[in-house]
Structures are given as structure tokens and as C-alpha cells.
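C-alpha cells in:
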């Protein structure tokens, strides 16, 4: 349970850090409204052992677990199918128009497919066949991409911002092969 300025006292009464308290931490908490974990305070016995109502505050940090791939507002199976379809169409047509969030996700997968085609091994070809929907497209990619992108080590796509979509004002863009 997170509290802002008030703390639950021993009898359930609210105990506020008032400006008349001489403790610096209590004063800072009362004026800044820093969030403090009440359970941690009670476990430490801070209400009974110390004259200070607030122990040393620890910063609240958001952890970036599972933040590698945008979720795109879809379940995992639909998201994977969407990314595969957009990557296939980008490699087939050379340029597609989509939302910026989708374009940024597709960029990494398209770059990976082109890197696999530059590698040219049988294992790389099978990995590309497992991801791209069109078998003839994979064969064409493995024939043309190594000489087209021989001087590049990455950055095979570019994204342009375009006008927002009419209807929901979503940010749109064009992703194309360099």
C-alpha cells in the first residue's frame, strides 16, 4: 500500500509529518509529497523505535523487463503474423505505408532478413523461409540482396514520416528499402 503524505499510526489514526517536527526527512516528505511504502515502514518498526516518522527514502524505479518489442495492441500470435506479413510485403514491393510504430518494428525484422540473405548459408536460408511467407521471394532475396547491399553492414531500410491517418489521427510513415 502506497501513501503520499499521511501515514497510518498504531491505532489507525493518520499521523502527518507536520512542519513543527525538527527532522529534515519529515519536513521534506511533508512538503514534497514523496511516496513511501507503508508496509516497509511498519516492518522496520519505524513508528515505535525512531523519533523520525520517515526512514530514509528509496527511489521508485520502473524496470524495463520485456521492453524489447512493441506490443502493437495485439496478442502475440496476431502480432507475429502482422510483422511477418508486413516484412514480406516490404521485401516484395520495396516500400509500404503503415503506422510509425509498426514501421519501427518491421525495420529490425527486414534488416535481419537481409543480413541472413547476405550470409547465404543453408541454415540462413531455412531461417528466412521459416519467417517470410513467400518461397520465391526468399530465393530472389538471396540472389539479389548480397550484391545490392555488399557495401552496407546494416541500415537497409529508412522511414519517412507522412501525414497522420484520417479518422484516428494515427502517425503514419513510409518504410522503404535503401
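Residues out:
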Amino acid at each position: 500500500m502506497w501513501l503520499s503524505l499521511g501515514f497510518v499510526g498504531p491505532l489507525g489514526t493518520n499521523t502527518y509529518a507536520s512542519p513543527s517536527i525538527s527532522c529534515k526527512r519529515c519536513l521534506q516528505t511533508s512538503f514534497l509529497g514523496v511516496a513511501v511504502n507503508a508496509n516497509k515502514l511498519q516492518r522496520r518498526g519505524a513508528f515505535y523505535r525512531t523519533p523520525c516518522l520517515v526512514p530514509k527514502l528509496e527511489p521508485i524505479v520502473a524496470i524495463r523487463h520485456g521492453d524489447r518489442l512493441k506490443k502493437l495492441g495485439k496478442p502475440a500470435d496476431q502480432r507475429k503474423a502482422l510483422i511477418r506479413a508486413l516484412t514480406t510485403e516490404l521485401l516484395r514491393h520495396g516500400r509500404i505505408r503503415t503506422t510509425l510504430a509498426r514501421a519501427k518494428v518491421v525495420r529490425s525484422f527486414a534488416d535481419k532478413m537481409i543480413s541472413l540473405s547476405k550470409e547465404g548459408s543453408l541454415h540462413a536460408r531455412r531461417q528466412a523461409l521459416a519467417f517470410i511467407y513467400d518461397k520465391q521471394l526468399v530465393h530472389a532475396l538471396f540472389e539479389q540482396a548480397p550484391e545490392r547491399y555488399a557495401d552496407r553492414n546494416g541500415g537497409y531500410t529508412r522511414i519517412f514520416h507522412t501525414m497522420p491517418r484520417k479518422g484516428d489521427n494515427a502517425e503514419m510513415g513510409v518504410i522503404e528499402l535503401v
